[in-house]
Amino acid sequence: MRKTTFAAGGIALVLVLSACGGGGQASSGGTPSPTSGASAVAAGTPAAGDLASVLKATTSALESKKSVKLALEASEDGKPVTGTGQARYGDQNVTSMTIESAGQKSEVVFADNTLYVKLPADQLASLHTTKPWLKLAGNSADPTAKALAGSLGDAASGSDPAKALDLLGKAGTLTSTEEVQLGGQAVTHYVVDVDYSKAADQLPAGIPGPLRDSLKTKGVHAPMDLWINGDQLPVQVTTDVGPLLKAAGAPSTGSTKSTVKYSDWGTQVTVQAPPADQVADFAEVLKAMSGDSTQPTG
């Protein structure tokens, strides 16, 4: 596996993990179903048509709920991608997720401002390392490792829903609302139109500069759906990157939507970096690969 192959996979992972910046679902899933009226929403809920009030109330609710369980549903090249994990937000965000695609599982841990990735065994073998984990540090001397560390780290730490709320506050326009049942609880479904000419600078670092610049001038809009419960906490958020892919001239295969589901807000979360003796520095792995070495690294 060459640098370019791993880098391309890294950018794909950026898009998958970036969906975490959107939201989530409660402890049990299901298709939203309409309710009969305003009684489905708790007293004190902001006016349905006032996006600024909704975002302010949810941001306030999140201040006392810093940890959560996550579930991800997305697609890559027309193949389903699923994931489960947990996160804790604060001065230093931490996230751990297990992601499954095409029958293979990868693990991602973001802790201590460092990203750790555990790839499937066959991919690790192609990288000529005996260590199960790769470390991607933002201060790496290798430009590929440094770029991927920044991109993926930004995406992983971006699971904080407060970042999505900030984006919507700057670039979102509320287009519709509906009171529904989702996962056995009453929620309000908000559909928001995102103007990426106003949000381009808030996209993950892994998004190429030319695409970021084009979004500022092409007037690209994309929908984001949020489901907020009576406690003003995110329950589910769905994003659609199709318009962004089209603006970049990239082909899209299958669904371009990603859904992140949140449950158990305030739950105890423990995220730790893997043991040092199980970690290989990705910069050193790339250095060995550039010399076409077949000797294991680490």
Descriptive account of the structure:
This protein has a single domain, classed as outer membrane lipoprotein receptor (LolB), chain A, CATH 2.50.20.20. The protein is globular and about 60 Å long. The protein has a 13-stranded mixed sheet. It is built from 9 helices and 13 strands. The chain is an alpha+beta fold and 298 residues long.
H-E string: HEHEEEEEHEHHEEHHEEHEEH
Helix share, percent: 25-40%
- Per CATH, what is the topology? outer membrane lipoprotein receptor (LolB), chain A
Question: In total, how many domains does the architecture comprise?
Answer: 1
Strand order of the largest sheet: 1-8-9-10-11-12-2-3-4-5-6-7-13
The rough form would be described as globular
Strand content: 25-35%
Which structural class best describes the helix and strand composition? alpha+beta
> How is the main sheet built?
13 strands, mixed
Tell me how many strands there are: 13
Put simply, the count of helices is 9
> From the 3D coordinates, which CATH architecture would you assign?
Clam
What is the mean predicted local confidence, pLDDT? 76
